[in-house]
Write a structure and sequence with these properties.
Distance between the termini: 25 Å
Strand content: 15-25%
CATH superfamily: Metallo-dependent phosphatases
Number of domains: 1
Helix content: 25-40%
CATH topology: Purple Acid Phosphatase, chain A, domain 2
Structural class: alpha/beta
CATH architecture: 4-Layer Sandwich
Radius of gyration: 17 Å
Strand order of the largest sheet: 1-2-3-4
Largest sheet: 4 strands, parallel
Length: 193
């Protein structure tokens, strides 16, 4: 099974406060998010694609964190990941790969992956055969702007038909801190679009 999640921000107390995450401390947040992750990801062969901003911690702390999280982990790097990625004590082999951008196949669909929302993504005109998964904007004014863009794009036409726009913000708070499958994210995105 393959899952996706963005913007966990393990160890980031400032984001805990800014996002108004319902945890009394950053330590409690980290513990609860590990439990939420592992409640969904059970098998060693399960794959989790992290769409950036896993943690702001340094290398050794992220090594310990990754060992607590179930499944094979893939990182589409975000701006806050650079702290541990550039730390010589970080063990990059704890990820299957680290890339700033990727395109994968998931149940006969193409999934375009980037930490940052890509408003004109590869395969956009392929309708429900292509999805753009991203993070970075959390649930902010920037995200509201992206939602308006998606709505306006879907209402536009090209060549007599509506323009598809399958962009999904995989923000961890939208999934109750749990990685979700593509199908679950598609379903979930209808709730907050």
């Amino acid at each position: 099974m393959r899952y996706y999640i963005a913007d966990c921000h393990f160890g980031h107390d400032k984001v805990r406060v800014l996002d108004q995450r319902n945890f009394g401390s950053v330590e409690q947040m980290d513990e609860e998010m590990i439990l939420a992750w592992n409640s969904i990801v059970h098998k060693k062969k399960d794959e989790v694609v992290i769409l950036g901003d896993l943690s702001v911690a340094k290398g050794e702390a992220v090594n310990k964190l990754l060992k607590k999280l179930n499944g094979k982990k893939y990182l589409v790097s975000g701006n806050h990941d650079m702290r541990f990625l550039h730390d010589k004590k970080f063990d990059v082999s704890l990820f299957e790969w680290v890339k700033p951008y990727a395109e994968l196949r998931d149940n006969n669909r193409t999934v375009v992956l980037c930490h940052y929302p890509v408003i004109c993504y590869n395969g956009q005109y392929h309708g429900d055969k292509t999805y753009m998964l991203y993070g970075h904007v959390h649930n902010t004014a920037d995200y509201q702007n992206i939602k308006r863009f998606i709505k306006e794009t879907r209402e536009s036409t090209s060549g007599g038909s509506n323009i598809p726009c399958n962009m999904i913000n995989c923000f961890t708070m939208f999934s109750d801190y749990k990685p979700l499958t593509l199908d679950k994210w598609i379903e979930k995105s209808k709730e907050f679009s």
